[in-house]
Write a structure and sequence with these properties.
Layout lengths: L40 E6 L6 E7 L14 E3 L3 E3 L5 E6 L13 H19 L6 E8 L11 E7 L4 H17 L3 H12 L3 E4 L3 E4 L10 E5 L11 H21 L5 E6 L14 E6 L6 H6 L8 H10 L3
Length: 318
């Protein structure tokens, strides 16, 4: 926590406003009428009144991983190991409107997006080679997106990456020592402390974690224990929708519509019912960039205290 560099929370919202987007863009492959510009749908939710789609999912045209290939590891010169880029990469278009940020949708629209995440997660996790399913959203150029139309992505991998495996190992050690889930303990400690809590509902806690890695880093954690996002019920998603929308709207209003990433952290496939893990959603506004020290040391520098950013968000009326 770089106190000497620390900014007051309101100073992070000084970025210039984005240009206004049209509701429809003729060249956008995600806009209605341009469905032929995308691969075949894997999911579509249609409005019964208008007969028009509201949420669509389909394979990414420029995937990081593809279904073909082998998951066999190969050794090169007895040292390097490689394998084919096997996996699943999908796009989930969140709305037919080119300019409708998720923060500005109605709760029902956010619920449809979460339901699409859930449906595709469970479908993809049943593919035999899949070991991990990550659902994430990149909003804005600095967050890695190349298309403005609101969308999220799903990537399924045939391995559990080291980053995820390390998280699980730490959680297992905590569980073996205490008999409790480290993520549930973290949630409960944050709720008791209160100073980093942004908002709380009957089913979810929203907070800026102790010693956050990034300014305004925000976690949404369920109060009921589920290791896997795929195990969430329709009622869970309906209750999550207003919490996610309000959280995103606070960031939208308080930070002047920042670029951000969010990701749903969930247990690997085959470990969906373990007591040591609790799925959760992390939002990382792109307010600062890693430089040489962070890259060289692996140490994050946060220029905003989470106690102050959480209070700023908590007091923000939306």
């Amino acid at each position: 926590m770089a106190r000497e560099r620390a900014k007051r929370p309101h100073r992070f919202s000084s970025r210039q406003a984005r240009p206004e987007l049209p509701v429809f863009s003729p060249s956008c492959p995600f806009c209605p009428g341009n469905e032929a510009m995308t691969p075949s749908e894997t999911l579509s939710y249609t409005d019964e009144g208008s007969g028009r789609w509201q949420v669509r999912a389909f394979a990414n045209r420029f995937p990081a991983l593809t279904p073909g290939g082998s998951t066999v590891r190969r050794e090169e010169s007895g040292f390097f190991v490689d394998m084919d880029g096997t996996g699943i990469h999908e796009v989930i278009v969140e709305t037919p409107a080119h300019n409708q940020a998720l923060a500005l949708q109605e709760d029902a629209g956010v619920k449809d997006v979460l339901s699409a995440y859930h449906e595709r997660y469970n479908a993809v996790s049943r593919i035999p080679f899949v070991r991990l399913v990550i659902i994430f959203k990149n909003q804005g150029a600095s967050a890695g997106t190349s298309l403005e139309h609101p969308h999220s992505q799903l990537v399924a991998t045939p391995v559990v990456p080291k980053h995820i495996r390390t998280q699980c190992e730490v959680a297992i050690r905590h569980y073996d020592s205490t008999g409790r889930c480290i993520y549930a303990d973290m949630r409960d400690h944050e709720l008791r402390a209160g100073t980093r809590v942004v908002m709380e509902s009957e089913e979810f806690a929203v907070f800026h974690p102790f010693a956050s890695h990034h300014p305004f880093e925000t976690w949404i954690v369920p109060k009921t224990h589920q290791a896997c996002f795929g195990n969430a019920s329709a009622e869970d998603l309906e209750r999550l929708a207003p919490v996610l929308r309000t959280t995103l709207l606070k960031l939208y209003r308080g930070l002047n519509n920042p670029d951000f990433n969010y990701v749903i952290d969930t247990a690997p496939v085959g470990e969906e019912n373990k007591d040591y893990y609790l799925w959760h959603l992390r939002i990382i506004p792109r307010l600062t960039e890693a430089a040489g020290f962070e890259i060289g040391s692996g140490i994050n520098i946060n220029t905003a205290l989470p106690e102050e950013t959480a209070r700023f968000m908590r007091e923000l009326k939306v």
